[in-house]
Amino acid sequence: MSQSKRLLSLDILRGLTVAGMILVNNGYGESFEPLKHSRWNGMTPCDLVFPFFLFIMGVSTYLSLSKYQFRMSGEVLGKIAKRTILLFLIGLFINWFDLAIDGDFACFDHLRIWAVLQRIALCYGITSLLALTINHRYVLHAVTLLLGIYAVILWVGNGYAQDPSNVLAKVDTWLFGKEHLYHKSPVDPEGLLGTISSVAHTLLGFYGGMLLKRAADVRDKVLHFLLLGAVLVIGGYLLSYLLPLNKRIWSPSYVLMTCGLASLLQGLLMHVIDIRGKKNWCTFFHVFGVNPLFLYVSSELLAIILGHIGVNDIVFNGIHSVITGPQWASLAYAIYFVLLNFLLGYVLFKRKIYIKL
After folding, report:
1. What is the rounded CA–CA span in Å between residue 165 and residue 20?
2. How confident is the model over 118-171, as pLDDT tens digits?
3. For site-directed labelling of 120, which of 13, 20, 135, 292 has its Cα 20 to 30 A away?
4. Which whole-number Å values give the CA distances from 106 to 100, 101, 103, 308, 348, in the listed order?
């Protein structure tokens, strides 16, 4: 297989993660425990979807910037800046829209600054700049340095405290004010300091992109991803004895473990799809994989709109009248919502419309 040929498995992993993000974000009422984020230390299947997206974004960042031979230019910097700012502003707009739709248009004194798209924006922007400025032989050194710095911050700053004494909460409160932060826990799960380990996370995906590009044969690519995944999972497991897995603070062990699992899954998908050619099941996730950020944004806005006009209640009550178990009804509603977004994506997919955010 030529280096330039696009691997379908990359789109499928991206699509799996976006569909998963929509699924876990849109349960109604009481969801099954695996579809909830861990309350603090520990990790559930729900905690895998966002880190998988950051990992595959790192892979895609390498492939994208390799077209420019990683040479810094006004054109490349302009594209990076434009995409970073656009993603951040769209994230802010979603936060604003959630309040404005209920009439709170002038909500700027208590508008939450952080959220998923804002973290994606910063990770993309910083990783892209590092890719243009450091020797790629030192990517793993940069990952180690970032995770080391973050580990020290957590260690000396009471970073595992589930209360306002946590250094992550203190920094966000000091810089932005409590009114502009996540209110359902003392630590904003997408806060500023957590960006340090999230950038390291994305750089590990970038390193995966390096392995992908440099291996000529798809079987070698699979082997590289499986080996990388095994090393990272073992490393994350061992590190978790010192620094427990924690999605809320994006702990170093969480970075290694989730990147390792993403790498293993990518290797498996490459083997099944790109080598063995088993592609009949891929269309559903391919739809999400070619317009990932657009469909994520549309799902967030659609959930806000349908909730505001009461459609969510009507649909869930209809489902619940047939499926009496509240957790099963919640899952059925989440699947319905994923399918709703799939229909939107399928129209774009059939027309070969790819919206880049």
Report:
1. 33
2. 999 999 999 999 999 999 999 999 999 999 999 999 999 999 999 999 999 999
3. 135
4. 8, 11, 9, 18, 34
Residue from 74, 68, 118 nearest 92 by CA: 118
Return d(Cα 122, Cα 191) in angstroms, integer.
11
* Cα–Cα distances in angstroms (integers) from residue 5 to residues 129, 213, 216, 219, 257, in the given order: 26, 11, 11, 14, 29
CA distance 248 to 41: 8
CA neighbor of 225 nearest in space, from 274, 259, 276: 259
Cα–Cα distance, 248 to 336 (Å, whole number): 28
Residues in the chain: 357
From residue 133, alpha-carbon distances to 61, 67, 156 in Å are 14, 16, 30
Q: How many other CB atoms are there within 10 angstroms of residue 30's CB atom?
A: 12
Instruction: Please tell me the distance from the alpha carbon of residue 248 to that of residue 181, in angstroms, as a whole number.
Output: 14
What gap in Å lies between CA 286 and CA 10, rounded to an integer? Answer: 9
Q: Which helix (H) or strand (E) holds 231?
A: helix 218-239
| Helices vs. strands in the chain: H and E counts, helices first | 13, 0
Tell me the pLDDT tens digit for each residue of 198-252. Answer: 999 999 999 999 999 988 899 999 999 999 999 999 999 999 999 999 999 999 9
Helix (H, G, I), strand (E, B) or coil at 110: coil
Paired tokens of 181: 């932060």
Looking at this protein, which amino acid is placed at residue 31?
Answer: S
Q: In angstroms, rounded to a whole number, what is the distance separating the alpha carbons of residues 50 and 18?
A: 8
This prediction has a pTM of 0.95
